[in-house]
Amino acid sequence: MPLKIAVQKTENTICTGSKPGYLILFWNLVWAENSNTVTRRRNLIMGITNNPAFSASQNNLFGFRPPSVKLAAKHPDQTRKDLAILGLSVCQCESKHWMVTHRATLPELHFYSEWELTQFANHKAHQYANQPSTINGEHMTRYPIYQVDAFTSEIFKGNPAAVMPLKAWLPDGVLQALAAENNLSETAFFVPEPEASEADFHIRWFTPEIEVPLCGHATLASAWVIFNKLGWTSDQIRLRSKSGPLGVHKQSDGWLVLDFPNLAVTEQSTPSIILEALADAPTTIFYVAKDTNYMLVLENEAAVKATQPDMQKIKQLKSLGLIVTAPGTDSDFVSRYFVPCAGINEDPVTGSIHSALVPYWAEKLGKKVLEARQLSARGGLLRCELKGERVAIAGQAAFYMEGTVYLQ
Prior knowledge:
Elements: E1 5-7, E2 14-16, H1 35-47, H2 70-74, H3 76-85, E3 89-93, E4 97-101, H4 114-127, E5 132-135, E6 138-150, E7 159-165, H5 172-182, E8 186-192, E9 201-206, E10 211-212, H6 216-229, E11 236-241, E12 244-250, E13 256-261, E14 266-269, H7 272-277, E15 284-288, E16 293-297, H8 301-306, H9 311-314, E17 321-327, E18 333-338, H10 354-365, E19 369-374, E20 380-387, E21 390-395, E22 397-407
Parallel strand pairs: 7-8, 9-11, 16-17, 18-19
Antiparallel strand pairs: 1-2, 2-4, 3-4, 5-6, 6-7, 6-22, 8-9, 9-10, 11-12, 12-13, 13-21, 14-15, 15-16, 17-18, 19-20, 20-21
């Protein structure tokens, strides 16, 4: 009969018990010099656990069925060696039970739920990131990377962002090169802030070509990673950024609410380059000085959908990008955002531009709670609220993938 594993409350000991449990967390601690060793140690760890969350015919979280528990019993010497490399020791207790321990006195056992252990596994995966590895004889450092689709509940929609948690900042040139390699509209990087800080993390955002002062969708994606992959237990995250303090709140329905600044707009004559780039553009335009965007207000949603600016001319603007917006048909307002100077012809869904759009439309429509849609090919839904000098921008997120970046 397979062993049934319980997880000790101190989170550093695994031992056998009489109730079903999980050992998925220790998979994240395994690394080795070659694939055969990796496979053997992975199978060892999965082999001494019985995971009741998955039926016999169903693959588990790691994409393969757990091997037989006899693996550990058949190769006790190799078992001890492999576990020793993981900083653990193994011994046989009673007649048929194995115990894996950190050589500590065993306190009372606590049987965690699947969700609790998954959260702990994710936390450990982040904790053991940036560990050295050897590939083809070269010493490499590993960094976790995630991709999340923001402002949508479905993958392949919304705006995809790469998210890379770091323990300490890499050189700016490396951050920019990583963003270029990812080739998404933004890659977010963040590091933990000191305990005495008023923020939990310091966050920065890079397009494939430049660093930007504010980014909504990559902040939403980062928050999703922190809440769901790094074992964050609070429903609030405080961020330090180039645009000042930001926040993210997790609602009970799973929506994530960004706490962003209220960005003022000023009305002015439309620059000639925009009139050349966009047929039938209004002769007046709004300028968002804080993030150097221009904002054109069109007559209706159909006009926004039909917008086809000359990207080469828009790229000549001495600004970040061009927002086009109008009242919505099935929402309070709609928008699109063109940013060729940052290497993005059209951004699929842009949380940060709503720091300017929400105050504008709140005044025009006489309401503070607004629903917005961004009309790119991928599309996105945002629930917004004007809160004085702050703007609340809420959205969903869909997890797409995770992996590892290796750097010398």
